[in-house]
Design brief:
The chain is built from 18 helices and 7 strands. It has helices at about 20-30, 35-45, 45-60, 60-65, 65-90, 95-105, 110-115, 125-130, 135-140, 150-165, 170-180, 185-195, 285-295, 310, 315-320, 340-355, 360-375, 390-400, and strands at about 225-230, 235, 245-255, 255-265, 270-280, 300-305, 325-330.
């Protein structure tokens, strides 16, 4: 559920990485044997820079697979640009066009390359160089440090507090942290809640005061019909498998920092249909688990998620539309709307994460693999009349004639 990464380590002043080196670092990220914080610290770069390289790498994989088409498209683009330039030559003159082209190229550089262009020995002042490059002067002198062990402890403590008390907002979390002996202000609690991707679960719908991201469409919550109220208690019931799926992402701590776990759950059976652990949280994490679930099981009628950018992204919503799946999203600030997967994450953390001291990502992955296998195939659930999630899932598929083919128990 969290939407950003905290490790902050910038490159040394003037240091520029070659394309080969960037590719090497991205491949190291994709192997997911270390957290993003550890890789950033190792190469003295920010996690944001690594994420940008990873996105650029994944966006351009198709070029490597079909270079002839890429060259053809590039030539066509060059021809179109050349025509535009010819018109510009006539209007403004060659000198003006060349100047504008150079300035535009400089402004389009990323932060790392812009910083590498700033030189103290030039006759142009540092302030003027920063102005020309549209670069903040403070970024030239600022040298960030990776998140300290103490701050990682605060993140871990906040994760435990929220897991036990999902109704807590930042004020209550701050109070609990102070009572537990941590020295931290409310503003930093808010910042760390963004890193963890957590919001208080409110018992009643709050008036929406936040501004939606106009670039991503937010879909209506479609699951009200599955909720029933008895007195002051609300319960949720879905009558068959593959009626409703939901997806979410949660923070998982390790000795070397933290990673993210994305999962897809079936609301009827409480079965985990797919999951993935990653050292970075981006749209591919959400889309990967969705694709895996759709490849292994019949599609759902409805897919629900929160309003995080990973789920509102074009990539994720387009997959759902291509499979003719209705898209549902939680109301703003109401994690309770996605309660089934929230409960699973809480159970996972209390039954496995908090009681194990995982030394590495590989060890963590193995531990979670073992736990989810046990959860799906071996663990009794009182809400399922003491049956097991995958047992209930397959029974429902068989009863409802949903292309019933029982998969090997080695899959989720």
């Amino acid at each position: 559920m969290a939407r950003c990464n905290p490790a902050r380590m910038r490159t040394k002043k003037g240091q520029i990485y070659s394309a080969d080196k960037k590719a090497q670092i991205v491949l190291e990220v994709l192997r997911e044997e270390q957290t993003l914080s550890q890789i950033a610290s190792k190469y003295q770069i920010t996690t944001k820079t690594i994420q940008n390289w990873k996105k650029q790498f994944l966006d351009n994989v198709a070029i490597a697979m079909e270079p002839a088409k890429a060259v053809s498209d590039y030539k066509a683009e060059l021809e179109a640009k050349e025509q535009e330039l010819n018109e510009a030559y006539k209007k403004l003159g060659k000198a003006t066009v060349e100047r504008d082209w150079a300035v535009g190229k400089l402004k389009s550089l990323d932060l790392l390359n812009k910083k590498g262009l700033v030189e103290s020995k030039l006759n142009i002042s540092i302030a003027r160089q920063c102005e020309l490059l549209e670069l903040s002067r403070s970024s030239i002198y600022y040298k960030a440090k990776p998140m300290s062990e103490y701050n990682i402890k605060i993140l871990n403590a906040m994760d435990e507090i929220y897991t036990d008390n999902p109704e807590y907002g930042y004020r209550f979390i701050h109070k609990q942290l102070v009572e537990d002996g941590f020295r931290i202000g409310k503003d930093r609690v808010l910042k760390y809640m963004q890193i963890l991707g957590i919001n208080a679960i409110y018992p009643h719908k709050k008036k929406l005061t936040s501004i939606k991201d106009n670039q991503h469409h937010i879909y209506k919550y479609l699951l009200d019909e599955y909720w029933t109220k008895q007195g002051k208690t609300k319960t949720v019931k879905v009558n068959k498998a593959n009626e409703v799926w939901s997806g979410d992402i949660t923070y998982i701590r390790t000795n070397g920092g933290f990673v993210y776990l994305a999962a897809v759950i079936d609301w009827h059976s409480k079965a985990i249909l797919s999951y993935k652990i990653s050292n970075s949280m981006d749209a591919t994490l959400a889309t990967d688990v969705l694709k895996e679930a759709l490849a292994k099981y019949p599609k759902p009628k409805i897919f629900n998620s929160d309003q995080g950018s990973q789920y509102t992204s074009y990539e994720h919503t387009n997959i759902l539309k291509q499979h003719d799946i209705q898209i549902s999203m939680n109301s703003k600030g109401r994690s309770i709307d996605n309660i089934i997967i929230e409960r699973f994450f809480r159970t996972l953390k209390h039954s496995n994460i908090y009681i194990n001291d995982y030394k590495s990502i590989n060890e963590l992955k193995q531990g979670i693999d073992n736990y989810i296998y046990k959860y799906n195939h071996k663990r009794f659930h009182s809400s399922l009349n003491y049956k097991k999630p995958m047992e209930v899932y397959y029974e429902s598929m068989k009863v409802n004639n949903q292309n019933y083919i029982k998969l090997d128990e080695n899959v989720a």
